[in-house]
Amino acid sequence: MQEEFDALLMNRTWDLVPRPSHCNIVSGKWVFKHKLRSDGTLERYKARWVVRGFHQRPGIDFGETFTPVVKPATIRSVLAVVASKQWPAHQLDVSNAFLHGELKEHVFCQQPTGFADSARPTAVCKLR
Predict the structure, then answer these.
(1) 71: which residues sit within 8 A by CB, 6+ positions away?
(2) Please, are residues 24 and 56 in contact by the beta-carbon 8 Å criterion?
(3) How do the pLDDT tens digits run along the chain, 128 residues long?
(4) Can you tell me the distance from the alpha carbon of 71 to that of 28, in angstroms, rounded to the nearest whole number?
(5) Strand extents, DSSP E, 37-98
(6) Which are the contacts of 84, defined by CB distance < 8 A and separation ≥ 6?
(7) Which helix (H) or strand (E) holds 35?
(8) E strand or H helix at 53
(9) In sequence order, what are the beta bridge partners of 46?
(10) What's the first-to-final CA gap in the chain, in angstroms?
């Protein structure tokens, strides 16, 4: 949980602001997962802080909901061409990739459970 919280802070995911009276405050929760090695043994525990976006109101809290995603069939096709041409292939992983986007809307969420700022416990996170 600390590692996830540190990543959120490092990426400047939010600004801590006084709770506005006129806005919907989206709640959040911690989601836990076991990351396994290829042989099935435990590699590490992973925690993610997620906001409950289903509490947002369409047309008020957000407009579009499009996220570009590559389909598995496209990935298989590209890898097939790479293999047939014997081209080198490389992969990478962008840690916390979702944190690198920019929001146009004003979205407010509660502070992560267990990590509320002790100097401002009633403040909320204005997502960036």
Answers:
(1) none
(2) yes
(3) 999 999 889 888 899 999 998 888 888 999 999 999 999 999 999 999 988 766 666 666 566 666 678 899 999 999 999 999 999 998 877 666 555 567 777 888 999 999 999 999 999 999 88
(4) 29
(5) 42-51
(6) none
(7) strand 28-36
(8) none
(9) 33
(10) 21
